[in-house]
Amino acid sequence: MRPCYRVKSGVLDNGLRFYTQYDDSSSREMAVLAVNVGSIHDPDDKKGLAHTLEHVICAKTKNLSAKSIDALFARRMGGPDDNFFITTSRTCTTYGPADYLKKSHSQELFKIFAEMIRNPILSTDIKKIEQAAINQEHYLRGEDIAEIYIVDILYGILFSKSPVGYPVDGVMPDVRNIRIKDLRNHAERFYRPSNTFVVYLGPKHTEARKIINDALGDWGLKHAPDTPGLDDLFMQPFAPLAKSMLTTIKCRGIRQWHVCIGLPTEPYRNDATALDILARILSDRLYHRLRTENIRWKQGVYRAPVWTEHTFAHGLFASHFATLDGDFVPRIIDTFQKECMRLGETLISREEIETWVGFMYDYEFMDCFQRSPGNLTDMIIDAVSNGDTDLAELHQRGEKLLSFRTQGGRKMLRDISRKYLGNTATVIMKPEPA
Prior knowledge:
The protein is an alpha+beta fold. It folds into two domains: 3-216, CATH 3.30.830.10; 245-432, Cytochrome Bc1 Complex, Chain A, domain 1. Helix content is 45%, strand content 16%. The protein is built from 14 helices and twelve strands. Strands 1, 2, 3, 4, 5, 6 and 7 form a seven-stranded mixed beta sheet that branches. It has a five-stranded mixed beta sheet with strand order 8-12-9-11-10, sandwiched between helices. Helix 1 (49-57) packs across helix 7 and helix 3 packs parallel to helix 8 (205-216). The N and C termini lie far apart (56 Å).
């Protein structure tokens, strides 16, 4: 990778890390704060604590009322579904815009978000408002959407002995019972400089460092660093499923049968790049087998996405399908399993390798560094929150992708298929009349 595209990193005196990329072609910039805490870190009896804390923290500051914050956010980032990157994942919570802003707007927002995370205002009134909002969000963007709900069920089955299986937005009875004391304890434990990092794209490294240091440089200097490490919570080691599992649930209000099939893999790093390639190739093959080879009116599928997820605590290789005909469901499952088996038996064609590795390198890797600040920010946050603090793995991803086009690359993919693509867990969501 050319040096001009590489992301630089630095550390403030208080242990806060920051990551920058200079863009001399733009008068805009993007700054996001990230805290290494997500649903994986929720206590067993308070699933949704990280998500609730994110909601409450963003409501107000010591000097700005909730009304003032709403107006300022609207002027700089639009409505909640426009340019916001305020979200909780399994491993990280982020605060910032989703794309470039004017420099003055970016720097103003950065100071406000910095104040929110270092001096959170935790009020009972706001807590109650946000708990009710999360309850609505849970159904609007989760349980009432079949393709999201079925993935949560799959997670609960595959990772039943690990916090990885917790729903990211939480379990609603737990969310309802969260107290101010719980929020304060979680913030005091995880919202620390040594457990926080900043992604600042646009300005030169030295300029970004000064902006970040002015807002956060004196945060926590009176306290000894106490970073919750990646190893201080129970992590479920990778092990292939001993046997395949099938779970069927009934769901009112849907017309299609939904099928979600998945299996565990090793966590972040290791074979992640190879699994990403295999997911692309398998998705393409399933699309042709289940869509373009079907002519029956109620059978077939519209899409056959296969995706991977990697955190420091888990890996997932999964697919989701939907069809109107329940009699087509066994064919979906059988085709998925046979195509996985074929990946482990027969070398992938050179044409498939050229097609998908080329696409992933040009448009899912290099494009992020060259012209997609939002996607690059996502990549940096995923890397850092899962232990790649020096971004070595991130910067090497392009070379890893291209290595599979060289001699021996197809054999490596076949070997990795044999390692992981075995027994599966399948969830079937069956339509039930209202």
